[in-house]
Amino acid sequence: MTYLRTTALCALCALCTAPALAQDAFDLDTITVSGSLTPQELARTGASVEVIDGREAETSDTALTNRLDRLPGVNSTSNGPLGASSSIQLRGLPARYVGVRINGIDMSDPSGTQNQFNFGGLTGAGLGRIEVLKGSQSALYGSEAIGGVIDITTWRPSRDGLSGEVRAEAGAFDTKSGALSLGYRGARGEVALSYNRIDSDGFSARAGDPEDDGFEQDMLTISGEFDATDMLTVGGTVIYRDNEADFDPSLTATAGQIQTEELGLRGFARLRTGPVSHELSYAYFDIDRRDTSPGAFTPRFTGERDEISYLGSVEVGRAGTVTGGLEYTEERFTAQPVRGSNDNVAVTAEWLLPASDTVDLSLALRHDEDGDFGGKLTGRAAAVWRPADGWALRAVAGTGFRAPSLFERFSAFGDPTLKPEDSESFEIGVERTFANARIEATLFHITVDDLIDFDPGATACGSGFGCFGQVPGETTSKGLELAGEADINAFITVFGNYTYTRARNGGQQLTRTPKHDAVIGLDADLTDRLSGSFDVRHVAGVTPSAFAPAGNKVGDYTLVGVGLSHAITDNATAYIRVENLFDEDYETAGGFNTAGRSAFVGLRASF
Questions:
Q1: pLDDT value at position 29?
Q2: Ramachandran category for residue 372: left, alpha or beta (phi over 0 → left; psi -120 to 50 → alpha)
């Protein structure tokens, strides 16, 4: 902890001497829905939350992971082109420690080796908002939230009456995509529908193989809510995604294909009775993955999750808001010919306390009672202090856990006696807002014990090739995040961030995790109707996986992106963007290609 205190003091001193640049005031009233059990202003939460507008994510990159990569503390790895297996790391921790929710539905795959979400086919089309909540959040979200949570909301109408958006785009690798969003908002409710399709010839996933690996996907979301009475609101959402992705099963086999079908459902009822609000919800997620490759080892994986939850919140005057909840979850999976299931009951509570006009506190506790391995108690304490106008000091401490996945327990390589991994997380941060700029610094420190990993020498599963097991060692990820933005004048905004991450296990740097990750860029209004963007991302200090082939290209790289957009009318915009402008040749996963220089043109219109 000496490291944490010393670096924090240095960061505070540096921020105290930062110059006050001049521009319009930044919006401090942004609401975060993921930082607590109930929505609250971002300025009043101690948690680290990054917010991305869906329209920005839709047109700034082909894959959503490329946009997330430019956030502090976030990086991704990919096993090839669009549609290939891709994952997000938060603060150096891999995807199995990151929860992902879309419209309130847990979208992690219960049939996967670990419960994690595959970002490979997810674009920004049809998305309304993305929140990235960093640090251990098990006290709010349970298992798989040691590194943080990514909360995604699909498009919603922003004004009364009938409205919508349409987008068409084409570009590199013969990629064609289109999206349509329609919605209606009235005095008593709203309904929204979004459909998007993408089709790409892609490029070879495996290095050294000239055969292209294509991808095609359809995604449909429907959401709505209705005020049945002055006190009762009912609503729900449907998410359907169907895709096919080519891949190379081995160095010699190139005819692989994965077909994936996902269905998410959620319904809820909110009731307001005086100072108390109640929400009862049911969510269901189903995934069916088929490997149609000749001689596939496991041709089909299926996973299901049912979740019933209740959340009650009461405002207690100057004492703030107290929220409590009860949640039941059941998961099932099959990986022919094995299968397994598990259930969990959780009780949660959070107290949002405005201790004074300048101090806000959040105290959360959660108890998970697993049907097999028993109970886990986790907690989180967060605070934000605003000692003067434009200043905010934040601190968070939390504990977390990751339950062993169904595959780790019940597959041919599983061990049903596995226990959860445990974590501790600490962070302190400072934010300084000027009339025209904002700058912030955050120190973080996360440890994970009782690690679950594949042990080639283990015999508990009787596979003869090793088993998953509790392995010796402690994973520690600690580092510093710096971020800022400023309006240089009325036409140009500059932004940038830098993350240093020291993520180690057993004295070795975690693979695929950058030590240094820096971004700098600008947005400019060139004329009344023409605007441009430019950004540079440099990554350094990446260690390849032990399974990476000789001659792999995992290491330092620099990516440059540029874009132009022209407002044809007040409601229609044409744009062009170039990703990896200087055609950098690099890999994020050893032996798997990434995209070279890629240009895309598109048209977006609203009505």
A1: 65
A2: alpha
Q: Return phi, psi of residue 8, to 5°.
A: -60, -45
Which secondary structure element, helix H or strand E, spans residue 223, and what is its range? strand 213-227
Characterize 393-410 residue by residue with b for buried, 16 or more Cβ atoms within 10 angstroms of its Cβ, and e for exposed: bbbbbbbbbbbbbbbbbb
Low-confidence ranges of the chain (pLDDT < 70): 1-29, 251
Answer yes or no: are the C-beta atoms of 350 and 36 closer than 8 Å: yes
Give the long-range contacts of residues 291-299, CB within 8 A, separation 24 or more.
291/256, 291/257, 291/258, 292/256, 292/257, 292/258, 292/259, 293/249, 293/253, 293/255, 293/256, 293/257, 294/253, 294/255, 296/249, 296/256, 298/335, 298/336, 299/336
Residues 328 and 325: their CA atoms lie apart, in Å, by 10
* Count of C-beta atoms within a 10 Å radius of residue 170: 14
The answer to whether residues 194 and 220 touch, using CB atoms and an 8 Å cutoff, is yes
Cβ density class 428-450: b for 16+ within 10 Å, e for less: bbbbbbbebbbbbbbbbbbbbeb
DSSP-assigned letter for residue 592: B
Phi, psi (degrees; rounded to nearest 5) at 568: -65, -45
Helix (H) or strand (E) holding 105: strand 105-106
SS3 373: coil
The counts of H helices and E strands in the chain are 5, 34
Query: What pLDDT does residue 261 have?
Result: 98
Q: What are phi and psi of 398, to 5 degrees?
A: -155, 160
**Are the C-beta atoms of 236 and 192 separated by less than 8 Å?**
no
Size of the chain in residues = 607
Element (H, E) at 448: strand 437-449
Q: Would you state the pLDDT for residue 373?
A: 85
Domain positions in the chain: 2-606
* Pairs from 495-499 (Cβ < 8 Å, separation ≥ 24): 495/519, 495/520, 495/521, 495/522, 495/523, 496/520, 496/521, 497/70, 497/71, 497/72, 498/72, 499/72, 499/73
* pLDDT for residue 153: 97
The sheet with strand 148-154 has its strands ordered as 48-53, 127-134, 148-154, 98-102, 105-106
pLDDT digits (tens, 9 = 90+) for 166-189: 999 999 999 999 999 999 999 999
Q: Is 2-606 CATH 3.40.50.2300? A: no
Question: Which candidate, 404, 453, 405, 450, places its Cα nearest to that of 424?
Answer: 450
pTM of the model: 0.93
Contact 48, 135 (CB under 8 A): yes
DSSP H stretches of helix in 382-466: 406-410
Residue carrying structure tokens 């440890």: 447
Report whether 421 contacts 448 (CB < 8 A): yes
pLDDT of residue 208: 79
Q: How far apart are CA 578 and CA 78, in angstroms?
A: 19
Continuous segment of H or E residues that includes residue 140: helix 138-141
